[in-house]
Each structure stands twice: as C-alpha cells, then as structure tokens.
Design a protein that fits this description.
Elements lengths: L1 H30 L1 H7 L15 H9 L6 E6 L8 E7 L2 E7 L6 E5 L5 H11 L3 H34 L7 H12 L1 H23 L11 H10 L5 E7 L4 E8 L2 E8 L5 E3 L7 H11 L4 H27 L3
Antiparallel strand pairs: 1-2, 1-5, 2-3, 3-4, 5-6, 6-7, 7-8
Helix pairs in contact: 1-4, 1-5, 1-10, 5-7, 6-10, 7-9
Length: about 325
C-alpha cells in the first residue's frame, strides 16, 4: 500500500503540477484582492460632505454614462468615503459605475470583464472555460487532497529515518517535504473547500437565470425592506428576475435578506437572519477571511507553497536514483 501511495503521489504530482502552479499563484493574489484592486486603480474615495441623495437619483446619474442601459443592482459601501456602485446592463454589456452619493458625480466607470483581477479570478475558478473549467478545478482540488494525504503517509518513514540520523537524499527532496509538512493542514482545507465551491460554481454557471428587469423606485424598495429590519442599514438592491428584487441589509453582525416584488414593493419573504450561511463559511475557509491579516497571510503563503511543491517535486523526480 505504501508503494502504491508513492506511485499515486508521483504520477499525480507530475500530471497536475502545471495546473497547481496556476491555481497557487492566482489564489495567492486573490487573497489580497481588495488591496490589489485599490493599488491597480480602484474607484477613488469621495470627500464631499453632506446628506446622501436619493437612491433613484444615484441610479439615474449612473445611467447617464450608458444611455439605453438598465440598473440591475445598487451596492451601498460600508465606509462613508467610498462611492456607491451601480451595475448597469445594456444588452450583453455590463458596466460598474461608481457615483458620489452626495454630489451625484460619476467618479469611475469600468467593464468588470476587462479587469485584471477579474481575469485572475476567472482563471482560478474555471480556467476561463465556464462550467467545464469549474468541474476541472473541482477535480484538481480532489487531486490536491489526494496528494496531501499520500504525502503525509510517505512523510512518516522520512521522519523516522531522520530520527535515526539518516540524512535525506537531495536538497530538493528535503525542501519538498519541509514545505509540504508545514502547509499540509491548510492545503487540505483549501482543497476540500475549493472542490465544494468549484462544483457549486459549475452548477450555477450551467443554470444562469434569464435576464432580469431594471431597478426602479429604489427608495420605496429600500424603505420597505428596512421596515422589516429594525436598526439595519441597506447593503444592496439586486434585480433577481423580472418580478422580484433582493434587498440585503446589515444589522450588527447579521446579514438579512428581504425579497420584494419589484412593482408593488410588497415583502415576499424574509429568510432567517444569518452571518452568511454554510456557503459563506466555506468561502471564508477557502479564502482565509476569518482571522484578519494573520489568516490571509497564511493562506497567501500556502498558495505560494503550491508552486514550490510542484517545482521541487519535478526536481526530485528528475534526479537519477
């Protein structure tokens, strides 16, 4: 069985090495996506002081940049110095427009598909191949879990030989075992959660909903939603189909979703408040978003460790026995 595990670890690493390098480097970059987005030219901060204008006026200001477009979503930032973001759709084209909520000045406008980090995310999540690519990423996550388990099994005898004073053969092999041992736990977590997110993403891509109607009467919808969330603040309004709008509100540490009828503004459903649900927990475990900079730095180093494991594994495999 140990010989079989060694062969599985050997051939699994040879076949998945290049793809593991891509996932590791892209994942390490996405851990700091917000900071990189700001560094690469994110929406500028707003400095105007005064009362926030009506949501309908903010959406109308955004639509001036795309005549004939429809506002499909409006996102309210947590910080006061950040602009509101309106998703405007015209045909197959989507533009994210950042609007100063006090002066109604458009401070930024960009096509998400042309963003560098959006391309990196698409590469990491599905290799730019839609649902088949997401399934391939899920299979690769299973391979990463198998590599971690077989590597742990093979690492035991190495530790016993080292305890008896037997030096390991080759620096690349020793570095491979050291990096693998240090990142084993996080690699397993990243692999398992990555499989779940990739397979869920493939199902979501294959079952995309039809185009939704544009948003209208935003202030009425926001007031109806906040009426059932006392003490809450609006986070976003999103058109989910031609008849309904999803309002998201923040209340302390809770995340409350209210489903409204688009035309009448009546409340259709209010799911129990939560902090994001099981999928949000899986996402946070996959991205390291649970212990601030400490967890994010550990996940970024784990992402960089995957290319190191692939390279040292290739060097070890090519050494003459």
């Amino acid at each position: 069985m140990r010989r079989l595990a060694a062969r599985a670890h050997f051939w699994g690493g040879l076949l998945t090495g290049p793809l593991v390098v891509v996932l590791g480097l892209s994942g390490a970059a996405l851990v700091f996506r917000a900071e990189l987005d700001e560094a690469l030219g994110g929406p500028p901060a707003v400095t105007a002081s005064g009362p926030v204008r009506a949501l309908d006026a903010i959406a109308a200001a955004a639509l001036l940049t795309e005549p004939g477009g429809e506002a499909r979503a409006l996102h309210v930032p947590v910080r006061r110095d950040r602009p509101y973001r309106v998703e405007v759709v015209r045909g197959a084209r989507r533009v994210d427009v950042a609007v100063d909520p006090v002066t109604l000045r458009v401070v930024d406008s960009r096509v998400p598909e042309r963003s560098v980090l959006m391309a990196v995310h698409s590469l990491h999540a599905a290799f730019h191949a839609g649902a088949p690519g997401a399934i391939a990423v899920g299979v690769l996550g299973l391979a990463l879990v198998a590599e971690s388990v077989t590597g742990l099994w093979l690492y035991g005898p190495s530790l016993r030989r080292r305890a008896r004073g037997v030096r390991p053969r080759g620096g690349s092999r020793g570095l491979h075992r050291l990096v693998g041992g240090l990142t084993l736990a996080l690699s397993l977590v990243v692999g398992v959660t990555g499989v779940a997110l990739a397979l869920a993403g493939s199902v979501a891509i294959a079952a995309l909903p039809p185009a939704a109607g544009g948003l209208a009467r935003l202030d009425t919808l926001a007031s109806r939603a906040l009426a059932v969330v006392p003490g809450g603040t609006l986070a976003s309004l999103v058109a989910v189909d031609g008849r309904h709008v999803r309002a998201e509100a923040r209340r302390g540490g809770e995340h409350v979703v209210v489903l409204l009828e688009r035309e009448t503004g009546s409340v259709v459903a209010v799911p129990p408040p939560s902090s994001g649900g099981a999928w949000d927990l899986v996402r946070r475990l996959h991205t390291g978003d649970f212990a601030g900079w400490l967890s994010r730095l550990a996940y970024a180093l784990t992402g960089l460790a995957l290319p190191a494991l692939a390279i040292t594994g290739y060097l070890t495999a090519t050494r003459p026995r």
